[in-house]
Design goal:
single chain, about 240 residues, Glutaredoxin, 2 domains, about 20% strand, elongated
């Protein structure tokens, strides 16, 4: 359950409400989102109906927000099995990250099927990693601000220009801003993972790192961490030892 705190007259709160309603529709089978506000009941009811919000609760004053130390809005906290599971997320972007991690599938290991995990590419097209079938794919976890990634950038581009025979398809899963990623001029398709959700699912542990997906959509390797392991996997299409 995600408890989200808002205040009357909070512009950022009002701007977030359409997205909150979208989360409720899309993730309702995995996450209950409860907007908690205060003020006039009729005004709040009209706002809820306007955006299609559900589960809206009103405080008498700020008694619930104070209990969760939510001094600023919009803010949110994740609760699981009756226990507070997260620190307070402040601001819409931080709340968005909390939602992403709350709906992630369980992490996977070598030999297991890749779960459904949808990420947008730089053109806004969405790819479900569970649909990676038919050929081997190397998922490269990347961050344009990572110094180690910068150091191996030329090697990655060289591989892209002349991949070895039978090399896996390279699919880059990147944190960081889309503009910073575009500046690196990578030739492979890049999927955006700003909150490191995919990294968590695959237990990548940092950047650069990589994992191989086989033709049947199963995790086919341990996670390779660092440029030497990643480049070896890209050249041979084989996994690394644990």
């Amino acid at each position: 359950m995600l408890l989200m705190f808002s205040e009357p007259g909070c512009g950022a709160c009002d701007e977030a409400m359409p997205e909150v309603a979208q989360w409720q529709r899309e993730y309702g089978d995995r996450l209950v989102i409860v907007p908690i506000g205060r003020g006039d009941a009729q005004a709040n009811r009209a706002k809820s109906e306007k955006h299609g919000l559900e589960n809206v609760l009103l405080q008498v004053d700020r008694e619930v927000a104070n209990a969760y130390l939510a001094d600023n809005t919009p803010s949110a906290v994740l609760v699981r099995d009756g226990r507070v599971e997260s620190s307070l997320a402040l601001g819409t972007d931080a709340i968005r990250g909390l939602v992403v991690h709350a709906i992630l599938p369980p992490s996977v290991s070598k030999g297991e099927a890749v779960p459904s995990l949808k990420l947008a590419d730089l053109k806004g097209q969405v790819v479900d990693l569970a649909q990676l079938r038919g050929r081997r794919t190397l998922l490269l976890f990347w961050n344009p601000s990572c110094g180690f990634c910068q150091q191996m950038l030329d090697d990655v581009k060289s591989w892209e220009r002349n991949p070895p025979k039978d090399a896996p398809e390279l699919l880059i899963v990147a944190a960081g801003s889309p503009d910073d990623i575009r500046k690196q001029d990578l030739g492979s398709r890049v999927l955006l993972d700003p909150y490191f959700g995919a990294s968590q699912v695959f237990n990548s542990g940092g950047t650069p790192s990589a994992v191989l997906i086989d033709e049947q959509g199963r995790v086919a390797s341990d996670v390779g961490v660092g440029a030497p392991d990643v480049l070896a996997m890209a050249r041979s299409g084989a996994g690394v030892s644990a």
